[in-house]
Amino acid sequence: MGVNASVLAFDAGNSKTDVALIGADGSVLATARGGGFRPPIVGITAAVDVLAALRDEAVAAAGPSAGPVAHVSACLANADLPVEEAELALALRERGWGRTVEVRNDTFAILRAGVDEPRGVAVVCGAGINCVGMVPDGRTARFPAIGRISGDWGGGSGLAEEALWFAARAEDGRGEPTELVRALPGHFGLDTMYALIEALHRGRIAYDRRHELTPVLFATASAGDPVARALIDRLGDEVVAMASVALGRLGLLDEHVPVILGGSVLAARHPLLDARIAARLAERAPAAEVRVVDRPPVLGAALLGLDAIGAGPGAHRALRAHYS
Known about the structure:
About 50% of the residues lie in helices and about 20% in strands. By secondary structure, the protein is of the alpha/beta class.
């Protein structure tokens, strides 16, 4: 007799969504992958329809064992505030996919994927930057993480904007010299920052291609450019500021606890950034252990689901083994 599905796990980002049906013993019964989850752009109903199509695909693959599950664990992009989590949880409950539903910001999936128990802090730096923390008693630490209006600085997009700002001012004389003035336009085959500014402004280079400049910034910093290096140092300081505040809110500053790093910028393991984070974190939280997550976030969403249904350690080990 087959294992029945107990957890329906979602990890939904802006660009892609992963779904997994999990048995109470930690077995992975079916998975599916599809497009991004963007309720601010398409609305909640249309965004949840994306989840519904992927859920149906996973259920069809799992067969008769995949009826309504005990728990739906959904870690979703754009669930940045508790009120947004509540709205999305209501939308998922109305679909009738499980007896209970919990919606969290997708950063929690990255954190849970990187820790052996629900205890630690994660900082994610991809297009943007975010940080969350949790402890086994259910307490969490988090930030709104919706951009400059909530005090955020960093992320790949933010770094590219800063690099462009410094390079533009270097070229026209308002700022200090930097090799970025040649490296940034050179990436697009252009000779000057003016040409790059015009191309971005006039749409000849799509504005969302700015993210391509983040690796250029890191390469320029590694070559010794002080302006580029200062931006990398500032990002490292921001990562540590978020992590240490979250650790402090949870009473973990002086404890041996994992600090998980995720997202494309941090997962790239840039030596200058890694060194800055390690040095600054050692000052603020000397017992903390920095780890870079190397497992898919849907694992974290599924582990949170197993936590919610009270699954034993064997189920957690089996699930981790599947994604190892």
